[in-house]
Design goal:
This protein is an alpha+beta fold. 50% of the residues lie in helices and 19% in strands. It has six helices and five strands; from the N terminus they run H-H-H-E-H-E-E-E-E-H-H. Helix 4 crosses helix 5.
Length: 176
């Protein structure tokens, strides 16, 4: 059976369009039509490594602490502290009350910092992550510095440095 060139081009285009639509459906899942756009956007963010969905899903298990700062001050202080302690901020959305970070530039474990107004002068900070270790690590450091205490990691580094100096000391003098 001989086909015209235009018919072959039509079949190729139909096949490509069908494949593309199946790909989009696979990304979205069986979502209602109103949520298909969000599914595509979230899938694209997930593919790029920028999705915050997993952080939002883990929010009920978040570690939380309230601070005597309004939301705006809490948000800005937290952002500065996260930069200072070496976190890589990949999403900061003031309207959504969210800062999403990786533990560091080399450790891409996602951690979400959410802000909730307690009242006009107090804000609760919630830390969520799929990793309990990362969540506790960021919470310990962020909460301590937000409360005006020294960074707990710096104390541990100083202790290790003092132990190392003590272990290196030899009772024997070296000849020079």
């Amino acid at each position: 059976m001989a086909y015209r060139i235009s018919h072959i081009a039509y079949r190729k285009a139909t096949f490509a369009l069908t494949g593309f639509l199946l790909f989009l459906l696979n990304l979205c899942g069986c979502a209602p039509a109103a949520r298909v756009g969000n599914g595509i956007v979230e899938a694209g963010k997930g593919f790029a490594g920028l999705s915050t969905k997993v952080l939002e899903d883990r929010r009920p298990d978040a570690l939380a602490k309230a601070f005597h700062y309004n939301y705006s001050t809490s948000y800005e202080k937290a952002k500065k502290i996260l930069n200072k302690i070496g976190c890589y901020i990949y999403t900061a959305n003031f309207k959504k009350r969210l800062i999403a970070v990786y533990v560091s530039e080399s450790d891409t474990t996602p951690v979400g910092i959410f802000f909730k107004d307690v009242d006009s002068e107090n804000t609760e900070i919630q830390i969520s992550s799929p990793s309990a270790t990362a969540k506790e690590y960021i919470a310990r450091r962020l909460f301590a510095i937000m409360a005006g205490l020294p960074d707990p990691e710096k104390k541990e580094e100083e202790k290790k440095g003092e132990e190392k100096k003590g272990n290196d000391a030899s009772p024997f003098k070296t000849a020079s």
